[in-house]
Each structure stands twice: as structure tokens, then as C-alpha cells.
């Protein structure tokens, strides 16, 4: 691409090209994981906003709800990392099935603690 | 609940004879030889008619002893030995004080002569005048000597003696009250009376000089006492009388200066009734506590619980020699204490159940070991004490309020994460693996 | 006791013969300030009390009179007392008055150095002052003199246990206030806000539209079903169950879950390997 004259279009160009590269190079499977990650992030932000703006009274409920989003995000992100074929060299002894089994077990345990604390 | 009737039943078994006093009916009268028993025949026969068994002895006799092997031998002791200077070995100030802790009641008479009993009076927060100074009064004008005084009966402590009594004849010494709330003043001196050893008007200067002396100064006025009771915490009572003549037959019958019979007989009977624990004797039968909608007392209570505390009170009725439920106390208070009272509230009587006093209150939101304390003391009545220990714990982990409206967003968040996880797993498990979909949005499987 | 009474009888006989009355001659009171200026000086009458007297902190009250019998001869009675009595509190103080042999009496009350027998006073309640004269040979005499306002003094000392013999003030515990809940509408709005990311998620997934060819396959579906059952069990635990119960049911449910999971994932592995 020819270098552009101003910096603004360069920045937006960089973002656009990042987006284009992401769109083309990421498999559908991974994209559905990313959608789930975005969903979890938005849900956590919404709960956090409620806690700051309105009330933190049942603080245990806030911790439970927020932790469910954050914990699930962490587990899903680690699933994505383990399953990505481009990371094959890092995770030689972990098959994608094994990664999903860990993900499912971790999620169930996380939800158990969340519901315990939710009150 | 069964404890409420077993105590009266046991007491009924113990006292076959209808004892008038709540603490027994054996009386030891220590009468000095100078005093003739027949001079007090009305007083003593009055006691015997009520059911008391009187045993007489002289101060120097060794038998019957008031204490044997550290056990009190009699329920009550009357000491009409105001001028005796030496007693037998079992009567000492220490042994008389120890009798009080063994629930034995005392009635002690004084006189202007100084005797070993004088030192005992100061143990009871009474200050006696210098020896040889009896109480005299020039008012009202009368034929009797100045030391024989008709004293109007004013109700210093309510309910101890009958109201509206005629003036009583008195001859003896006054005493001054020290600052002790356990003293129960029964009869105070008339305002115009004073203690003096004078017999003629020429003693006027001596009276004024006595006031200038240090210490108590002039012994005069209505702040002096003539008959005073002492009610310590244990329940036994001791009464001090400034002179023994007011119990004599002569004073029972002597006509008052304004005409009419004196109130000595009734007054003496009332004083004996109070001293021997017939009148104004109360006790707490039982206490119970529980949460508001339960009947069984809890082992532990939680902070902010609604608690109900009930106490059952009885008063001794000398006429029927029985303890009867008593709802007449309007100002009893309950304290809920952990080191300091956290709650002090009125404990009113319950209408419809005689003898029951009950209050409902909210337990404080501090946890710890608390006590329900009843501490009811009034002049003239037996002191009521009760202390029940109860632990107060913070709420258990599932004792807090749940499903609050303030937490709806969090509930929604947690549930939506669960549902999202489920949908995502379905999507993942049911979908294709990555091997065939490197590029593009939709791929068809082979 | 009898002998004591018998001794007094002769005296009594003498006393009865001379039971004449006593009166006061020229009773007068004077209030002066500390610098000896006279503030008030009036005679006292036996029939009418004067208006109430007021003494300041440094004033001096003097009362003078003479005790005479009927013939006007001055006598010294056995008992000449001034009684200060507070009707409201019941406190009383008795002060003797020195009388000469001729019956002349002078009483002085210096507020700068008050006598110890004066009862505790309040600024609002007066002391009633009475004169009490008693004698073995004359009829006794009692006379209300006047009401006296004195500056307030220290109250009588109280025994430390004294308050427990009266009704004591109630103690109420201040509880921590219940935490305030925000209005339900606000909570509902934010709950809807937390639901909003679903729109994003479903939109994105719809846009990506991943294929789900094996959804109803008998090797995959049981695993999804048991995962769903687990989530349902946890929701049930939040609503109703106790810890012991959920652990028990969870342990029971974990067996089919493990079996289904094993089957599902090994099938997926075979497919992935088969493709390669």
C-alpha cells in the first residue's frame, strides 16, 4: 500500500487492515469463541457499572456475578489458546478434546462456587 | 414449667405447722434478768398466737446456743438485753453478723448504756449517740418525764408498718443513719426531740456546747431514727430498736396525752412481722426465655432476633402461710448485659396470668455472651436477683436475607453466563473441527 | 428501767406546779451585707409571718429575742433550737441558740461561713425556719418564724448504690440501619442492561453462522444434555438445595457426564483424525 499523507487515515487504515486480517485468517470456530468472549466482557462491564453507580449492597452477589463473567472469560480464553492450530507447537501434549474437557470441568466448578456465593 | 409447682409443694411438706414466717417459726429470746418476762406478756403471747415457738434464755446462759457447729439453731433471735455488759461466749458481734448470712432474722434493742452491742450497730451503718444521753422531748406537754415520748408514726418506708397508726410511746436512744441504701428506716424521731443527759433547765449551756463539738454535733431533729431495719442481699432482716420499753405491756396500755390508746401493740406486731420475714417477702420462682414464635428456650440466639423473657414472682402470704403469685410490681426492669447493660427495659406484669412478668425485645446486633439480669431492690422488700446466661451469635452463612431486588442484575449475570456456556458448548461440540475451515465464513462439510 | 422512771417522778411533780407559758419579747431579725450595711431589719410577730427572707452568698442574718415567762422575767429554757426545714426534699438542720441566764438570745448566720448543720438548699425552694423552745418547768413553745431563701448548696452526697434502688433510665440499643435497597425500577433497568449483551452475542453468532452438523448425533447429544443437567442442578442448588444434597446429586450426575463426555470427545477426536 502507498504511504498515506496524514496520520489519521494511517491509524484508521491500521485498524481496518487489522480487522480485515482477522476476518480472513480466523476460522469460524475461533470466531464463535471470540463472540462468546465479547459477550462475557460486556456482561461483566454492565454488572460493574451497576455496582459503582447504584449500590454494592449485596456485595457477595456482586462478587459472584462479576466473578462468573471474569472466570468464564479466563477459561474460554485459555480454551481458545489451546485449541488454536497456530499454537500447536506450544501445546503438543494437549489435544483439543482434552482442552475442552478441562474447559467444561472448570466451568462447572466455577458455576458451583458462583451459585454458592450468589445468595 | 414443672419447676413452678414443685417449690411450693416442697415448702408445704416441710412446714407441717402453719408457720407464719417464710423462714421458720423457732424464736430465741435473749432476755436479761433485769427485765421481767411478764412485763412483755402481750408482745410474746401475740407472737405465740401467730404460731412462733419462743425459747427464753439469759445472756450469760450457755444453752441454748445461737450457733452450734456453725449451724444456726433458731430461725429468729430477739435480743432484749440492752444493759447487759457481758454475754456468754456464743454471743459476739461476729456471731450475730454471721447469723444474718444463715437466713436468721434479728431484733435488737438498745439503751443509753454502752454495751458490746454498740460496736455491732456500726456494722449496720448506724451511729449511736454518746453513752448516757437518752432521747428527750419537751413536746407535747404531758405528765410523763421528758424521756418517755409519744412519737407520731410517719410512713418513712411505705408498707412496713400499718398506715394511720396512733402515736407510739418510746423511751430510749436515737441513732443516726449513715449513708447506706440497705437501711430501712421504720420510725424516725419527732422534730423537736434531741438526745441529752440533762434533767433541769440549767443544762441548757451543755446542750449548746455539745453542738460545737466536732463530729455529729447536736443530736436533734427528725433525721434521727428510733426503729430501723437492715435488709442485706441475702434476705435475712435485722431491726434495731432504740429502747426496749416500747414493747412492754405498760407502754401498750398507757394513755396518750391527747387521749386514746397508743399504737404500740400494732406497731410492735408489724415490726416483728417485717423482721421475721412475714410481710413484704418476695421471690422469683422461675424465669424463662425463648424466641417470639417458639416456646422452647433456645441454646443460642442470633443477633437481631425477637426475644421474649418472662419471670414468675411470688409473694409470701402470712395469713395462709403460702407463696402466692404476685403481680403488684409495676416498676421492675430487665437488663440484657454483656459487661455493660446493652438494653434496659421495663418488665411489666402480664394481665390474665397472676405472677407473670414478660417483655419482648430485639436482641442487639453485637454478638457475644449476654445475661438476662433482674436486679430489683426497693427499701423494705426482699431483693430480687436473677441472672441467666445466653450466647448471642452472628447469623449463619445462610441466615442472611436472600433474593433481594437490589441484586437482580447480578442474578441475571450469573444465569446468563451459565446459559451462554451451555449454548457455546453445544455450538462447539456440534460444530466442525478446524481442519476443514481455514478460510471463509461458511464451509460445507464433506 | 422502772427505777429510772421512779427517780424522775418527784421532778415531774415539781414541773407540773410551774407549767407556765413562755413568750418571746422583742423578737427581731436583721439582714446585713458583708460590709455591715443593713439590708433589712424588721420585728418578728407571733401572729403573722414576714415576707420571705433572701440571703446572698456573703450576707449575715441576725435574730435576737428574749425568752420571758408570764411575769416578764427572763428565763433560760433547757432547749432553744432553730429548725431549718426544706419541705420539698425533706432535709432538715437543727441549730441551737445560746441563751443567757436572763433569757437574752442572739443567733447569727453568716453565709460566708455557714454552719455544718445547715441542710442542703436549692435556689428555688425556701427553708422554713421554726423556733423550738422546751423546758422542764415551763410549757413548751413552737413558733414559725419565717421562710428563708439561701443560695444553692451542694446536694447531699449519694451512696454509689443508691440509683439501683430506684427506677433507672431505660437504655435502648441503636441498631445499625438496614441497608437501603435502590428502587426496584433501577435494578430492573440494569438487569435489562446485563441482558443486553445477549443481543450482541446472538447477532455475532448469527453473522458468523457456524455450522452444527453433529448437533443431533447420538454420540454428542448426551454430553450436551448432561452438561445442561449439571447447570440445572446448580441452579436448583441456588434456589432450594443444601450443600450436602447438591454434592450428593452432583456426584451421582457426574458418572453419566463422564461417560457421555468420554464418548463425545473421543468421537470428535476420531473425526478430527479421520479428516487429516
Automatic annotation (TrEMBL), chain A:
Homology family: Belongs to the DAD/OST2 family.
Keywords, in A-Z order: Endoplasmic reticulum, Membrane, Transferase, Transmembrane, Transmembrane helix
One Pfam assignment: DAD
Species for this entry: Steccherinum ochraceum
Compartments, as annotated in UniProt: Endoplasmic reticulum membrane
Biological-process GO terms, alphabetical: protein N-linked glycosylation
Membrane topology, as annotated: Multi-pass membrane protein
Leader peptide range in chain numbering: none
Pathway info: Protein modification; protein glycosylation
Protein name as it appears in the record: Dolichyl-diphosphooligosaccharide--protein glycosyltransferase subunit OST2
GO molecular function: transferase activity
Main location per the UniProt record: endoplasmic reticulum
Transmembrane intervals: 35-55, 99-118
GO cellular component terms listed in the entry, alphabetical order: oligosaccharyltransferase complex
UniProt keyword Transferase, yes or no: yes
Record flagged with keyword Magnesium: no
Function according to Swiss-Prot or TrEMBL: Subunit of the oligosaccharyl transferase (OST) complex that catalyzes the initial transfer of a defined glycan (Glc(3)Man(9)GlcNAc(2) in eukaryotes) from the lipid carrier dolichol-pyrophosphate to an asparagine residue within an Asn-X-Ser/Thr consensus motif in nascent polypeptide chains, the first step in protein N-glycosylation. N-glycosylation occurs cotranslationally and the complex associates with the Sec61 complex at the channel-forming translocon complex that mediates protein translocation across the endoplasmic reticulum (ER). All subunits are required for a maximal enzyme activity.
Assembly behavior: Component of the oligosaccharyltransferase (OST) complex.
TrEMBL record, chain B:
Assembly: Component of the oligosaccharyltransferase (OST) complex.
Pathway in which this enzyme or protein is active: Protein modification; protein glycosylation
InterPro entries: DDOST_48_kDa_subunit, OST48_MD, OST48_N
Its biological purpose: Subunit of the oligosaccharyl transferase (OST) complex that catalyzes the initial transfer of a defined glycan (Glc(3)Man(9)GlcNAc(2) in eukaryotes) from the lipid carrier dolichol-pyrophosphate to an asparagine residue within an Asn-X-Ser/Thr consensus motif in nascent polypeptide chains, the first step in protein N-glycosylation. N-glycosylation occurs cotranslationally and the complex associates with the Sec61 complex at the channel-forming translocon complex that mediates protein translocation across the endoplasmic reticulum (ER).
Family membership: Belongs to the DDOST 48 kDa subunit family.
Listed name of the protein: Dolichyl-diphosphooligosaccharide--protein glycosyltransferase subunit WBP1
Membrane-topology annotation of the record: Single-pass type I membrane protein
Start and end residues of each OST48 middle domain: 289-430
Sorted UniProt keywords: Endoplasmic reticulum, Membrane, Signal, Transferase, Transmembrane, Transmembrane helix
Recorded GO CC terms: oligosaccharyltransferase complex
Annotated gene: WBP1
GO terms of biological process kind: protein N-linked glycosylation via asparagine
Localization annotation: Endoplasmic reticulum membrane; Membrane
Principal localisation: endoplasmic reticulum
Pfam families associated with the record: OST48_MD (PF23358), OST48_N (PF03345)
Keyword rRNA processing attached: no
A single GO molecular function term of this UniProt record: transferase activity
Keyword match Transmembrane: yes
Domain OST48 N-terminal: start-end pairs: 27-275
Transmembrane regions: 408-431
UniProtKB/TrEMBL annotation, chain C:
Coarse class of the protein's main subcellular location: endoplasmic reticulum
One Gene Ontology cellular component annotation held by this UniProt entry: oligosaccharyltransferase complex
Keywords: Endoplasmic reticulum, Membrane, Signal, Transmembrane, Transmembrane helix
TM regions (residue ranges): 185-208, 220-239, 245-265
Domain Ribophorin II C-terminal: from-to ranges: 175-272
GO biological process, one term: protein N-linked glycosylation
Pathway: Protein modification; protein glycosylation
Residues annotated as domain Ribophorin II third: 46-148
InterPro entries: Ribophorin_II_3rd, Ribophorin_II_C, Swp1
Domain of life according to the entry: Eukaryota
Compartments reported by the entry: Endoplasmic reticulum membrane
Family per record: Belongs to the SWP1 family.
Function text: Subunit of the oligosaccharyl transferase (OST) complex that catalyzes the initial transfer of a defined glycan (Glc(3)Man(9)GlcNAc(2) in eukaryotes) from the lipid carrier dolichol-pyrophosphate to an asparagine residue within an Asn-X-Ser/Thr consensus motif in nascent polypeptide chains, the first step in protein N-glycosylation. N-glycosylation occurs cotranslationally and the complex associates with the Sec61 complex at the channel-forming translocon complex that mediates protein translocation across the endoplasmic reticulum (ER). All subunits are required for a maximal enzyme activity.
Protein name as catalogued: Ribophorin II
Amino acid at each position: 500500500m502507498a504511504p498515506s499523507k496524514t496520520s489519521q487515515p494511517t491509524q484508521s487504515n491500521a485498524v481496518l487492515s487489522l480487522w480485515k486480517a482477522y476476518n480472513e485468517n480466523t476460522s469460524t470456530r475461533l470466531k464463535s469463541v471470540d463472540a462468546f468472549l465479547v459477550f462475557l466482557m460486556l456482561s461483566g462491564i454492565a454488572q460493574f457499572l451497576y455496582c459503582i453507580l447504584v449500590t454494592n449492597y449485596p456485595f457477595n452477589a456482586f462478587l459472584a456475578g462479576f466473578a462468573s463473567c471474569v472466570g468464564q472469560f479466563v477459561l474460554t480464553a485459555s480454551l481458545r489458546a489451546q485449541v488454536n492450530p497456530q499454537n500447536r507447537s506450544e501445546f503438543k501434549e494437549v489435544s483439543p478434546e482434552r482442552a475442552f474437557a478441562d474447559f467444561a470441568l472448570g466451568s462447572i466448578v466455577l458455576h458451583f462456587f458462583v451459585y454458592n456465593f450468589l445468595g | 414449667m414443672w419447676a413452678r409447682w414443685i417449690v411450693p409443694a416442697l415448702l408445704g411438706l416441710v412446714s407441717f405447722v402453719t408457720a407464719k414466717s417464710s423462714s421458720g417459726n423457732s424464736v430465741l429470746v435473749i432476755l436479761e434478768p433485769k427485765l421481767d418476762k411478764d412485763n412483755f406478756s402481750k408482745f410474746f403471747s401475740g407472737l405465740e398466737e401467730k404460731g412462733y415457738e419462743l425459747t427464753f434464755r439469759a445472756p450469760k446462759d450457755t444453752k441454748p446456743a445461737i450457733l452450734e457447729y456453725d449451724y444456726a439453731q433458731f430461725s429468729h433471735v430477739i435480743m432484749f438485753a440492752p444493759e447487759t455488759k457481758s454475754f456468754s461466749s456464743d454471743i459476739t458481734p461476729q456471731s450475730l453478723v454471721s447469723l444474718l448470712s444463715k437466713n436468721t432474722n434479728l431484733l435488737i434493742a438498745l439503751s443509753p448504756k454502752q454495751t458490746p452491742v454498740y460496736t455491732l450497730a456500726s456494722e449496720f451503718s448506724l451511729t449511736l449517740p454518746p453513752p448516757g444521753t437518752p432521747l428527750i422531748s419537751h413536746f407535747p406537754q404531758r405528765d410523763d418525764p421528758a424521756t418517755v415520748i409519744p412519737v407520731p408514726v410517719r410512713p418513712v418506708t411505705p408498707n412496713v408498718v400499718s398506715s394511720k397508726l396512733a402515736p407510739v410511746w418510746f423511751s430510749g436512744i436515737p441513732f443516726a443513719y449513715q449513708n447506706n441504701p440497705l437501711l430501712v428506716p421504720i420510725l424516725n424521731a419527732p422534730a423537736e426531740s434531741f438526745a441529752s443527759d440533762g434533767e433541769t433547765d440549767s443544762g441548757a449551756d451543755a446542750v449548746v456546747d455539745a453542738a460545737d463539738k466536732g463530729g455529729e454535733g447536736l443530736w436533734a431533729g427528725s433525721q434521727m431514727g428510733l426503729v430501723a431495719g437492715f435488709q442485706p442481699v441475702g434476705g435475712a432482716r435485722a431491726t434495731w430498736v432504740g429502747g426496749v420499753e416500747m414493747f412492754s405491756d405498760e407502754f401498750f396500755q398507757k394513755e396518750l396525752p391527747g387521749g386514746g390508746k397508743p399504737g404500740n401493740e400494732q406497731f410492735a406486731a408489724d415490726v416483728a412481722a417485717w423482721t421475721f420475714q412475714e410481710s413484704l417477702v418476695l421471690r422469683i420462682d422461675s424465669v424463662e426465655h425463648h424466641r417470639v414464635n417458639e416456646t422452647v428456650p433456645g441454646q443460642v440466639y442470633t443477633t437481631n432476633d425477637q426475644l421474649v423473657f418472662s419471670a414468675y414472682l411470688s409473694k409470701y402470704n402470712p395469713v395462709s402461710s403460702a407463696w402466692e403469685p404476685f403481680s403488684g410490681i409495676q416498676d421492675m426492669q430487665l437488663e440484657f448485659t454483656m459487661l455493660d447493660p446493652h438494653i434496659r427495659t421495663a418488665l411489666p406484669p402480664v394481665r390474665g396470668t397472676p405472677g407473670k412478668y414478660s417483655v419482648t425485645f430485639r436482641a442487639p446486633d453485637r454478638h457475644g455472651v449476654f445475661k438476662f439480669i433482674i436486679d430489683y431492690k426497693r427499701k423494705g422488700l426482699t431483693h430480687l436477683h436473677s441472672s441467666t446466661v445466653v450466647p448471642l451469635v452472628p447469623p449463619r452463612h445462610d441466615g442472611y436475607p436472600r433474593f433481594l431486588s437490589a441484586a437482580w442484575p447480578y442474578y441475571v449475570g450469573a444465569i446468563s453466563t451459565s446459559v451462554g456456556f451451555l449454548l457455546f458448548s453445544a455450538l462447539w461440540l456440534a460444530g466442525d473441527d478446524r481442519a476443514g475451515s481455514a478460510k471463509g465464513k461458511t464451509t460445507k462439510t464433506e | 428501767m422502772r427505777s429510772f422512771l421512779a427517780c424522775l417522778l418527784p421532778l415531774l411533780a415539781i414541773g407540773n406546779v410551774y407549767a407556765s407559758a413562755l413568750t418571746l419579747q422583742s423578737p427581731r431579725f436583721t439582714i446585713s451585707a458583708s460590709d455591715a450595711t443593713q439590708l433589712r431589719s424588721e420585728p418578728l410577730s407571733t401572729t403573722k409571718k414576714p415576707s420571705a427572707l433572701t440571703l446572698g452568698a456573703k450576707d449575715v442574718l441576725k435574730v435576737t429575742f428574749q425568752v420571758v415567762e408570764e411575769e416578764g422575767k427572763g428565763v433560760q429554757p433547757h432547749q432553744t433550737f432553730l429548725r431549718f426545714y426544706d419541705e420539698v426534699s425533706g432535709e432538715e438542720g437543727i441549730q441551737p441558740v445560746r441563751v443567757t441566764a436572763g433569757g437574752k438570745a442572739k443567733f447569727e448566720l453568716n453565709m460566708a461561713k455557714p454552719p455544718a448543720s445547715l441542710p442542703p438548699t436549692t435556689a428555688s425552694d425556701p427553708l422554713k425556719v421554726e423556733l423550738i423552745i422546751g423546758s422542764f418547768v415551763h410549757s413548751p413553745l413552737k413558733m414559725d418564724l419565717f421562710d428563708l431563701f439561701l443560695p444553692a448548696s451542694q446536694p447531699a452526697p449519694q451512696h454509689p448504690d443508691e440509683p439501683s434502688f430506684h427506677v433507672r433510665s431505660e437504655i435502648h440499643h441503636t441498631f445499625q440501619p438496614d441497608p437501603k435497597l435502590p428502587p426496584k425500577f433501577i435494578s430492573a433497568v440494569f438487569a435489562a442492561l446485563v441482558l443486553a449483551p445477549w443481543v450482541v452475542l446472538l447477532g455475532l453468532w448469527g453473522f458468523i453462522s457456524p455450522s452444527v452438523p453433529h448437533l443431533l448425533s447420538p454420540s454428542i447429544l448426551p454430553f450436551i444434555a448432561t452438561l445442561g443437567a449439571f447447570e440445572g442442578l446448580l441452579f436448583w442448588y441456588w434456589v432450594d438445595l443444601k450443600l450436602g444434597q447438591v454434592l450428593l446429586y452432583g456426584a451421582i450426575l457426574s458418572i453419566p457426564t463422564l461417560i457421555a463426555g468420554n464418548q463425545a470427545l473421543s468421537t470428535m477426536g476420531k473425526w478430527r483424525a479421520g479428516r487429516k
